[in-house]
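Structure Section — protein described below
Tokens — whole-number codes for backbone shape
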Amino acid sequence: MKLFDVYPLFDVNIVRGKGCHVWDDKGQEYLDLYGGHAVISIGHSHPTYINKVSEQLSKLGFYSNSIVNTLQQQLAERLGAASGYDDYQLFLINSGAEANENALKLASFHNGRTRILSCEKAFHGRTSLAVEATNNPKIIAPVNANGHVTYLPLNDLGAWEQELSKGDVSAVILECIQGVGGIKLATAEFAQGLHKLCKEHGAVLICDEIQCGYGRSGRFFAHQWLGIRPDIITVAKGIGNGFPMGAVLISPEFKPVYGQLGTTFGGNHLACAAALAVLDVMESEGLVENAHLVGDYLTDQLQQMQQRQNHITDVRGRGLMIGIDLDVPQKDVRQKLIYDHHCFTGCTGTNTLRLLPPLCLSKGEADDFLSRFEATLSEI
């Protein structure tokens, strides 16, 4: 049997990681400014993480959600306190797409409506309804194209007001910092206006914090920069530092019903141990604050580099979620960064690099990246 060939691959086999560095099977070290697509939050192979997951595995790896799992209860309490949402409810699943799927389903249960508003260039996942809310026709199969979703421009409040005023919108789903969309930031004016409109017209506001949340923006959630409090928040990626996990944070206005939602593997013992280890390290090492400080430093240094490097046309972002627009194809820059300067970055579109490093990135490692990046651009 062969692998189903849907991923274009770099010819690199990563076999080991530590902090913000990874090594291939030939012993070559790479600086990781990608974090496995924003998944590695506390760094590769953190000893606290290894110990907590290993200890749990030696006791019990899995049992069903038909029994009490005190690790789930501990995680709900810890996550509520860390995020400032201790009055919300927690539903645990396995991925970001599942988180958004369940959030949109809950919204429809709540108000009985079927219409969804999503952003142009949004990415919310690849499952049935999540992919329909994703503004990419190439990945929406005919069976998923059910006419539930209207895409609207980010930060154009008038366009959203026009649709919400029709009174038939079930949910608005919003990335406060778009990831695949190119590190585009929602403004506070737009977010607050949208929040108010959702309340006025009975629509549920969902903030997709799968990539921009969990400390990456320099606050626990990116929407907390904007002065809003959504009805539902979805998370994944950094919650488990590589262990597959997702979650939905749900307003107390939503009343649970037995059987309404369900999952086989969601919230399993190993996943909860991983998530608790992540919170332990984030708190003990001040990683949210570090993302803010190092992210600001890195953005400032990149903007200074822009003044002396013609290939950089724009730098934007918040915390350790940074987009760099180039006047050359990002593919050429990424390949040279990986193969010649041994550094991983993300990308989106034709000309944009995405920086999504572990939240433990130091200023010294940021300087190391800047040196490798400028050397790469000078060779293009």
About this structure: The chain has a mean pLDDT of 98. The chain is about 35% helix and 20% strand. The longest helix spans residues 287-308.
